[in-house]
């Protein structure tokens, strides 16, 4: 049997308008630390907007999600259109508001949100192949939008939890560093920066998620 390989979908670079960098980096660390490999992907689209991460103010410029995600992946990234479920054993989506702004429209449309076509195709193809899917922080909202009756956690946020229920999912409250596993859908989720977390807590959360996904293989 070959080495287990994960696909990781990124949504830009920076937690306010793209991928949460700590969650992404520590997910990649956890994958390698468990003896597995990864390939990063991102959709080739324009970000919803660009924010100044010092002030939080919107900037008058455009950035590309794939190009920004390449900063985290050190250039080793592929356009999500190239993704094939046959090439991977699992799929992971780190959090950051890019998951709710670029990969989906949740930040703008709430429970009525839509998901980027390439992201939806990747998730549905992995789910149909019965391969595990992991999501951190706010990213589980994408799974609630796409899948039928998944059990997920985004921690303790009542507003988002209610939206998950209205979208047809089931929400299980969880604490920081806890994971929730849905063995029927082969989904693992963890809250991460839905709490006021430290970097070490994010690292432990990511490692627990990866190990739980390996148990589902």
Shape: globular
> What's the number of domains?
1
CATH architecture: 3-Layer(aba) Sandwich
Strand content: 15-25%
| Tally of DSSP helical segments | 8
**Biggest beta sheet summary:** 7 strands, mixed
What letter string, H or E per element, gives the SSE order? EHEEEHEEHHHEHEHEEEH
Terminal CA distance reads 13 Å
Structural class: alpha/beta
Extended strand count: 11
Assigned CATH class: Alpha Beta
CATH topology: Rossmann fold
Low-confidence stretches: none
Spatial extent as radius of gyration:
15 Å
Fraction in helix: 25-40%
Mean pLDDT: 97
Characterization of the model:
The chain has 217 residues and is of the alpha/beta class. The protein has one domain (5-216): 3-Layer(aba) Sandwich (Rossmann fold). Helices cover 35% and strands 17% of the residues. The chain contains eight helices and eleven strands. It has helices at 21-33, 65-72, 98-101, 106-109, 117-128, 140-146, 158-166, 199-216, and strands spanning 5-9, 37-42, 50-51, 58-59, 77-79, 90-93, 133-136, 151-152, 170-171, 180-182, 187-190. The protein has a seven-stranded mixed β-sheet, sandwiched between helices. A two-stranded antiparallel sheet has the order 3-4. It has a two-stranded parallel sheet with strand order 8-9. Helix 1 (21-33) packs across helix 8 (199-216). It is globular and about 45 Å long. The chain starts with a strand and ends with a helix. The mean pLDDT is 97.
